[in-house]
Design goal:
The protein is mainly α. It is built from 16 helices and eight strands. Helix 3 packs across helix 5 and helix 6 packs across helix 16. The longest helix is centred in the middle third of the chain and has 20 residues. The protein starts with 17 loop residues before the first strand and ends with a helix.
Length: 392
């Protein structure tokens, strides 16, 4: 009956280093566990005991690197090392600049400062759960949810490296944001009043906010999508718009027009209502020269891409000046979606217009795929300024 014996060292590691005199120099040697499980003696020489040991350690490190085990993540590694190891792989994937920036910000601002000094083996479900609760309390549910996603990705990466046996994030309590009153659709009277109020606001007129809002209403697009519309995307003779891009800010690069294949925004061809075609024709007649590589329909006062965050701020300030403190930009997308619903379009058809990959999301959020849908263009005719004047 054999004994249990001394446990073998893990692959990529070595045992005790022994140093012997070898003539006028010294020989350092140890047993190295290969990544295939075998054990090999490794030795190096030096003029002194310390030099021989240094030479051996360098040779062992080179051996690990050559075998693809460099910068190995183990249960004893720091969480900050795991974060960077995961990021090196993740940021090379096909992800939108916005997602990469969002995840990197969560690493730098919450995860590494809050958990970075822990060992990977100390990243338990309880530790992650406490951290997510703290982030939610200090920064809100939205940031806490992203931190949970990033940590789950990191821990999945650690599992694939055999640094963890299970992903501790699986059993972390879900982040439940506080229930807010969702944006509702504007009535025809409210929409007519908002449009009229803009005509008395000089700042809003200079910032071209009325046209930007009408751009949302005639397409049912988000602000970042409307600001990404370029003249080559429009076929005003056919009355169509090819959409599927967003304006995003990328650290170190500034504002970009990003075409994405994510489920949130995908390329699709939309039919414009007649008044939407008129809107873009009018803007084409007053078209300004672009000072950038893109040719946006809605641009900044400097002739560059307009920042969606700045557009949100300008709209928020305009709404406050006009007394519509409850109004947010998303109300207009909701209004367009409701017009489509009232016109009898199916949830699938409305989801195609909104850019949702699942009709269930449209039903859950807006009621309330990318083929030209003439019914959508006709349905959005009801939001025409002229049509509203007749009905009000």
């Amino acid at each position: 009956m054999g004994g249990t014996g001394r446990p073998e060292t893990p692959p990529g590691t070595y045992g005790k280093i022994r140093v012997y005199r070898a003539g006028s120099s010294f020989r350092a040697m140890t047993l190295y566990r290969e990544f295939d499980g075998s054990t090999s003696p490794v030795e190096r020489y030096g003029p002194t005991m310390a030099a021989a040991e240094r030479n051996l350690k360098k040779a062992l490190a080179d051996r690990v690197t050559a075998a693809g085990g460099g910068d190995e993540i183990t249960p004893e590694s720091r969480v900050k090392a795991l974060a960077e190891h995961w990021w090196t792989e993740f940021h090379q994937l096909d992800r939108s600049p916005g997602t990469l920036q969002l995840y990197r910000d969560r690493l730098d601002n919450q995860i590494i400062p809050g958990l970075g000094q822990l060992r990977v083996r100390e990243l338990t479900t309880g530790a992650v759960n406490r951290f997510i609760k703290t982030v939610g309390h200090n920064h809100g549910a939205a940031i806490a949810k992203v931190c949970r996603t990033v940590l789950s990705n990191m821990c999945g990466h650690a599992c694939r490296l055999d640094a963890m046996k299970i992903n501790p994030c699986r059993e972390v309590a879900p982040v439940r944001p506080k229930v807010k009153n969702p944006p509702r659709a504007l009535s025809t009277v409210e929409l007519a009043q908002v449009r009229a109020s803009f005509t008395y606001d000089d700042a809003a007129m200079r910032q071209e906010l009325p046209d930007m809002i009408d751009g949302m209403l005639c397409t049912a697009l988000r602000i970042a999508e409307v600001l990404a519309i370029q003249w080559p995307d429009l076929d005003l003779e056919a009355g169509t718009l090819l959409t599927g891009s967003v304006v995003v800010r990328v650290k170190g690069q500034g504002l970009l027009v990003k075409t994405t294949t994510t489920s949130k925004v995908h390329e699709r061809l939309l039919v414009l209502p007649g008044w939407g075609v008129d809107l873009f024709r009018r803007r084409q007649e007053n078209r300004r020269a672009s000072k950038i590589a893109w040719d946006p329909v809605f641009m900044s006062s400097a002739g560059t891409l307009k920042d969606p965050d700045n557009a949100h701020t300008q709209l928020r300030e305009a709404f406050d000046r006009m007394g519509y403190t409850w109004l947010v930009p998303h109300h207009f997308r909701k209004t367009a979606a409701t017009a489509l619903d009232k016109a009898g379009l199916t949830p699938r058809e409305i989801a195609d217009q909104l850019g949702h990959s699942r009709a269930s999301m449209t039903l859950d959020t807006y009621m309330g795929r990318g083929i030209v849908n003439p019914r959508a263009g006709k349905a959005l005719e009801r939001l025409s300024p002229a049509e509203l004047r007749v009905r009000t």
